[in-house]
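Worked problem 6 (solution included).
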Amino acid sequence: MTTPPDPHAIAEREICGLVDALARQIADHVRVRAVALDLTPAQATALREMTGPMTMRELAERMSCEPSNATFVIDKLEKLGLVERRAHPTDRRAKHLILTAEGAALRERLLELLAQDSPLGGLTPEQQRALQDLLEQAVIRP
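Solution. The predicted structure is:
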């Protein structure tokens, strides 16, 4: 005699599959939009996450990568004239990453492109907030 499948285990597996599928769709969406702007997906992600002055460590956290990876990406963006490193106002050991005027303009264009046909675009703002709330509750943070 077999034990019937645990409904919670089935639901968790299905949710994990959906989250994974959504993550792949979002990554593909970012990649296509990045290429349209002659950026790599990592560069596009960095620009998307630069909502204001921040340290490399803060950016790496937002990009979900190691600071050394974020440094590599920022080095390229700096060479393109999109980002500057400036002295941190309170920590002399750190640098603040700042978008240049060209970087800010490209970021705005990127955000416009990312909004077009977004994998989350079929959700209402209320549904997006509800999904965000649920995901924040589910994410285990250290």
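Discussion: The chain is about 65% helix and 5% strand.
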